[in-house]
Design goal:
The protein is mainly α and 504 residues long. It has 23 helices and six strands. The longest helix has 29 residues.
Amino acid sequence: MGRARNHPIAGAYTTDSKHRIGPRQDSLYIPRNTLRWTLPLCALRAHPGNVSRMFPSRERSAMSNGKPASQEYSRRQLAVILISAMLGYATDGYNMLILPFILPSLKQDLGLTAGEASLILSSQLFASVVGGLLFGWLSDRIGRKSGLFWSIALFSVGALLSGTAWDFWSLLLFRFITGIGLGGEWGVGMALFNEAWKKRRGLGSAVIQSCLPLGSVGAGLVAAAIIGAQGPSGWRWVLISGALPVVLCVFIRIWMPESLLWKEYDRKRRERLLPPQEEGSTFRALMAKPVRRTWILGFLLVGGYMVAYYGVTSFMPSLIADTYDQPPSIWQQVNTFAVWVVIPIKIACGLWGDRIGRRTASVTPILVLLLASLGLLWLSGNDAAPFPGSIWTWVIFWLFFMWSCGTSCASLFGAWLSESFPTRVRATGVSTTYMFGRGLSALSPVAVPLVASGDLQRGMGVVSTVGALMFLGAALLLPETKGRRLDSGGQQQAAQPSQPPVMR
């Protein structure tokens, strides 16, 4: 007990030759039982690390993976984030792809020409590029939840106004507004999902990505039902139905949490705790040397896929109807089978990406798509593969099905891109790479007829092959991010054998 003499509390005591504790004359007397408890507590105050050794169960319950329990998502919150992203992207596909189903009615009811109808489609596509830039930046500044909310709210308002259009110019304006909102939804939703989910990001991103064709199928069914019941004027209600996602805004506002990773980054930014190189404009940070290379490769990755995708899907109905002289019902059979069978393949590809890596799980299906594109090119020529009477024995059907399976290369876009950008520019980087890549697809409807020279199938094969090679080159150069942990600020740490790298 002699060493108690130097302790802040024990200094009020003295010991005799037999080591008995007694009060000093110039201090207050503290009972001996009190001293037995105060000395360990003072030691804990001096050495906070001793808490974990004395109370291991409490320490583990208060901390999870190095974060306070209050900084972890509940299972309900994770489910809400996933469902919101899925519904958001499904409505994106619904609103983006609904126009082709009602173009005949628009031409008849509003008197639109073919050129005006094409201009409306192109303006909506261009507006989505603007939306990706706007809402990506907004989400990096004010939060993922707010960015997603206003993105969905804007395209819902645009869809509602589209149903009231009275001529070409009003419809052009309202669809442009709709396109701006649509451009922000995918990137912001993917950034939020991947920041919240630490495991199975590839699988979750594939599930979200698979919701786009579901939205497209829903658009076709709704358009057929309403226009079939009301005639050409039913296009108004078809477009108004695209405003239903406004209900999702209420769901997001009430139940969906903000990204905890972004909140921590925002706190550091406001308190000026970030390194100097991470301060400044979002766009300046996006164009900094390491991030700029990632952006360019991401743009080429998405752009290559989009060029190949629209180079085939935009002309496949015309190929079947004009080149092979088959009714629209044949295309419906081909497309329906391809869509519903490929969705589970896309989800499986996402799961595969979580196991073996983003690059391998993306390169393998793009090679399948490339082979199918070369097959279309090889069989080009009038009646090179005549329709035998059934799609099941038709080589063009199986080439298209093989090509559709190859489109599962897009399943990991959300996870791979989100893990490639730092938190301070993640929403902007993901949104702009995807939407600028989608904008590049506008070249496909122009390039296919130019290359075709009277042979539509050859044009489709050439453009799809070019897009696949573009994707393949970018995928081989973009760094692997499987297992990468995301953090709120600082520099990316070097990968360790036992610890994945951190993307801040």
